[in-house]
Design brief:
Layout lengths: L4 H20 L8 H14 L5 H9 L10
Length: about 70
């Protein structure tokens, strides 16, 4: 089964929620840069249309799910 854009967005949303909760509780984020980068590599291996840079930016909160403004 090929992962889809909808799946990638759902995964990113889950990471964003977990890291946001950790920030609110003033604890270490469960998904650091290395883990997110590893996940991005995996996503790229699952779908050649995966836009790694845009996904990483979305996880970091720098853009919306389609790469535009938040």
């Amino acid at each position: 089964m090929t992962m889809t854009k909808k799946t990638f967005i759902a995964l990113a949303d889950s990471i964003r929620r977990a890291n946001h909760r950790a920030t609110l509780l003033d604890i270490s984020k469960p998904y650091g840069t290395d883990a997110i980068s590893d996940l991005a590599d995996f996503c790229q291996s699952q779908n050649s249309n995966f836009n790694r840079e845009r996904w990483m930016d979305y996880v970091a909160g720098n853009c919306g799910p389609n790469g535009g403004a938040r």
